[in-house]
Each structure stands twice: as C-alpha cells, then as structure tokens.
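hey m, so remember when u said the tokens were messed up on ur end? i reran from scratch. heres the input so u can diff it against urs
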Amino acid sequence: MRRGTTLIELAVVLCVTGTLAAVAVPGFRRMADRAAARGAAGDFATVCSTARHLAVLRSKTATVVIDENAGIVSTQVGDSVVSRRDFGEVYEVVLDASRSRISYGPAGLATGVSNVRFIAARGAAAETVTVSRLGRVR
C-alpha cells in the first residue's frame, strides 16, 4: 500500500478549489465596497455633527469643505482648519456632493438655501448622507 496522492486527485482538488474561489471572490468584493461606502458616509456624518458642535461651542461659523476631485473633507472654524480627512485614500471612494461647502452658524443652524446631499461610492455600492437646512444629518 502506497501513501500519497495521485496526479488526478491533485487536479480534482485544484479544480474544486478554483471553482469555489471564482464564486466567492465577487461576493467579497461587493461586501468590501459596501463596507467602504458605509464607513465613508458614517465618517462624513460625524464630520458634520462635529462641525455643528464646534460652531455652537466656539460661537463662530464652522464650515465643512468638500473637495470632490481630491476626495478630501475638511472642517474650518473661523480661519483655522481643525480637521482634514482624505476619504479617497482611507476608504477608496469617489465623492459627489450637491454643494462644496456646508456652513454652521453659532446657533448650530446650517446656512444656505437647500439641503446638501453627499454620496460616497465605491464599485457598485453607494451611500448617501443628507444635511438639512437646519443642519441635521440624516
């Protein structure tokens, strides 16, 4: 009695493994895209909430600046930049926003005429965050 495997047995195992990998990889990619889009949307909501709180706390206008081309979102209070996040590098998402700036006054209300829609997309996954005229994040 010989120990070991034959070439045919190895070929069958490799074919089964390859088929399973071909089926599983696209699912993992979609899952990673959804997780990245959700993470970026949640991070953006946090940035907006923090800017609103800073505006009230410091009694100054706080502005969230969205640079879609560079994938960077920064927060300014007065003349100083208090935070800068590179969404393109961290989450590898593409940003789209209806406006490039969201400003919060000292009362915590957003200034501007309309709601702001922020979309973070990666692959087929996309997540949307809406900032209302009152400054609430949904």
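this time it looks ok to me. The mean pLDDT is 92. if urs says something different then somethings off w ur setup not the seq
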